[in-house]
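Note on ligand handling. Small-molecule inputs were canonicalized before submission; formal charges were left as drawn, and no protonation-state enumeration was performed. Where a ligand contained multiple stereocentres, the stereochemistry in the source SMILES was retained. For zinc ion, this procedure yielded the string shown in the input block below.
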Amino acid sequence: MAKTRNILIGLAVVAIVTAGLAVSWLRGRRCPPSMHVLLITLDTTRADRLGCYGYDQPTTPNLDQLADDAVLFDMAIAQAAVTPVSHASILTGLDPHHHGLRVMHGLAANTLDEKHTTLAEVWQAAGGRTAAFVSAFPVTPTFGLGQGFEHFDMDFPNADGEGLVSEAEGWVSTGSSQRRADATTTAAITWLESQPDAEAPLLMWVHYFDPHDPFVLPPKEMLGQFRPRSKDRADVLRAIYDAEVAYMDAQIGRLFDAFKQRGLWDRTIVVVVADHGEGLGDHDWWTHGILYQEQIRVPQIVRVPGIRPRRVMQLVRTIDLMPTVLELADVPDALRPVMDGESLTYPMRTGWTGKPRVAYSDSVNMLGYGRFDDLTRRDDKYEKLYCLIDGSYKLIFHQLKPENKEFYDLLTDPREQTNLAASKPPAMLVMMERLETMQCLSPIMPGMTPTDLNRLGQLESLGYIDRSATTTTSTAPTAERPTTSKAAP
Ligand SMILES: [Zn+2]
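Structure output:
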């Protein structure tokens, strides 16, 4: 018996050493990716504001044309509706509670830890080139999103975030730290033209910010193409939003032309995805940061030479993009990190996702969660929220007020108007159980600032929270905990 055991141990050692050698051989060999990748992230862009997703305004002729030649995912869910959090998921293939970048301000938990492997890092390890061109502070290296990019262009005011974060008020002002789509596109094209031909495969990330806010406006002629339906301020802002989407699309057209003129287009995978949408008044919410469909259902389009165009109707996620790109570009398995996302190549080729996917999103940012010195002014919707979508069922769990949980059937109620939670449907209970096993609930204030700590004391004294149960980074779910269910004063 001892002899057999020794042989087995010996074989196991040989297998481990061989596998290790194979990995180092692959790393040493630097199998270059087989294609270029152009990854375009559209900040704050609702899927339903694109022509290819059914919008009746001419906002996106260039993206529509791309979609005609691409796989369009009709129900793609972003993993957060906060810019750096969602981008970290796109760039790592990980859900927010696994990559740890969960908030936009604070002393910790607002930076992607170096220990995580980004798409750009894998690309570099495989021998490819990497370059990023971004348009606003929330996607800069301040948040750890520069990992793996040898060239990172962020030529706009306050790119380091100096003075943008108000600890006293608990918010981040991004209005003064951004650039318009034309400037970002010009930077990307200028760099592209400076590169010698026949270089190693390129991963280029271009991020656009125009629809995020009306601080930087498109040219007058573009604004003139989208007239408000009334003089009402909301209608004026909606028209500006459409013009911003249209201007971004026009600049994306310039970028596509540059790839075509350089002869790169037929060797380039083009991925277009938004980090989140925008409320625009739906659910009485103007901006983003919470988890209704207008905020987390995003455009997701993947164009690959040789894969025929189709529309995939089943649920997919933005975390699925990184494994998809690595597979499509033949990056060796040994270089791919563990990801929550799963490759979309099978649905891209067949139109069917196979095993249905479940989408997770969260919102623990708490920016704008009322003023902590005046809790009566807070908005209950801006809670610490956790969402699961499974088939047509959608659960939104409220961590601070579990009795406010929401449950929708998106098939019969796509605009989330009828909360079915009160009737405790069996599907909701199953999804609650699933959420409870995920270890995804965050501490009350991830990345707390000294000011936050004072507020935490206030919240505790008012009975909103039980700090002793919520100070670890992965607190087990505490559904229905009595201390969190007191009414606002
Ligand atoms: Zn964003």
